[in-house]
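Standup notes
- HV: blocked on the assembly model, inputs below
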Amino acid sequence: MLSPADLQALWLTLELAGLTTLILLLGGTPLAWWLAHRRGRLAALLESVLALPLVLPPTVLGFYLLLLFSPRQGPGHWWQALTGHTLAFSFFGILIASVIYSLPFVLQPLVTGFRQQGVHYLHAAATLGATPWQRLWSVALPMNRPHFIMATSLGFAHTLGEFGVVLMVGGSIPGVTRVLSVALFEHVEAGEMIQAHVLAGLLLGGALGVMFVVNSFRRRGAHAVL
Amino acid sequence: MLCCDIRVTPAANATISASFHWQSGAMLGISGPSGVGKTTLLQHLAGLARPQRGRIRWRGNSWFDAQSGAWLAPHRRPVSLVFQDQRLFPHLDVAGNLRLAARFSGRGRAAEQDALITLLELRHLLHKPNGQLSGGQRSRVALARGLLAAPELILLDEPFSGLDHATRRRVMHATQDYLREHNIAAVLVSHDPDELASLCDDILPMADGETAPVQAAMDWLNQIEAPAGSAIAAVLPATCTHFSNIDGLACYDADGNEILVAADHAPHRPTARLSIAAQDVSLLLERPVATSIANCLPVSVAAWQPHDQGLLLTLSIGTLSLRCQITQRSFHRLNIENGKSLYAQFKANAVRVL
């Protein structure tokens, strides 16, 4: 069913989505914690900036990132000086772009979870002798399991389907930046409808599967927590 | 050993200023109407909030000092807090909550955990999720969790409020025994005078956001104005000397005076505090020859004051005192005067064991 090129695109997509989700969970958790517990204008402003990818056209984000990644100046230049490769049109480039693009999808559920949880249970843990680390590890994180599952699923699913940003920043280099959505676009352009159907079906099935997992955990999570 | 002098201005509430020294005793009760700042005070003692100024010291260690900037984080203070709203961790069952408390505190060996499970009647609940517990069961779990984690001091915020009457008394006494056995001091917030009377050695009265000096519980109990809905009573510390199922009576010794109590009122405990309502005590000029009233003690009149339509007398029995409520008519008929020797009578059924 899948041509070797499409199979390559599938693995690349899974790799990109997996790595993006992992990075976002590691970096997004402390960020969400900070945003949930910090009041003040700086935190409010930062939260708005970080939510921008939700409403911004992906091509706009891709355009600015492409400028940043350009080897002629700024981060793109430094990157090239350091590694000898360009940041634009590289896997690392689309990974950075994906992380930024999918950030709000991981961040929002976590911030919501931490906010809802409040400080009540953390106070209880503290008076039982829990260190700040134990409070995070044994209370805050496990209590927010439904929110983490949601954040992981949404981050992964959203990265699976990204198109505009990847095309802008990465183009379509087989094995490097040619992900499923880009490959699908190319099949349609070339009139290869059968291949297009297969890829579209794969993406649809993947997204449906992820949403099913999210919702079933949400139902169960609601019972366990309330 | 607990020395607190703090001033707190919570966001939306009135200022609370708490200044007291608690020298000795196993349990300090904080009494006062609701909204007076009792819970806020406990949270500041636990370190969950930082007072605006003042200092808190416990057994010579500084927990907070606004001047020197000293601050001990809540998890470093040898204190645990049992919240009125329990705050059981919702992602764990009962056993999980207890395990976590044992782990956090770095104490609570398996034997201790097991003893508490038995003491607070939790064994059949161990694997229940929190959502399925009743209010009283949640209170007991929270109490067990707090006791398990308490190193030197435990702060109890209305810990028995969700329990039904019979369980409440058992749990209160079980808690008291556990605290004694493990040499843990406690601060108890309660709006129930009986609870304070039964458990506390000292009382810290609070009113209008301010604390009064700490008093010995017996002094406080025998001077309080009766709270609305309960009768004025005298409270006597006593030890149980004899328990008879045949007579249906328990015999107590209160500073050399024998007091008989209906056995179904009396828990099987060696020490107790006996509460005798002023309206249940009557006075006689001479000792009666035969009467169905079980208790008759020689007393002398120490003081009186007008009360309702009649008079409220304070009667001395050795170092203890009783309260007695009589009418104007009886006052004149008995020729009451200071120091007059009389006999005070009350039924075994009129004595409540706290």
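- HV (later): unblocked. Chain A is about 80% helix and 0% strand. Chain A has a mean pLDDT of 89.
- Next: hand off to the docking folks.
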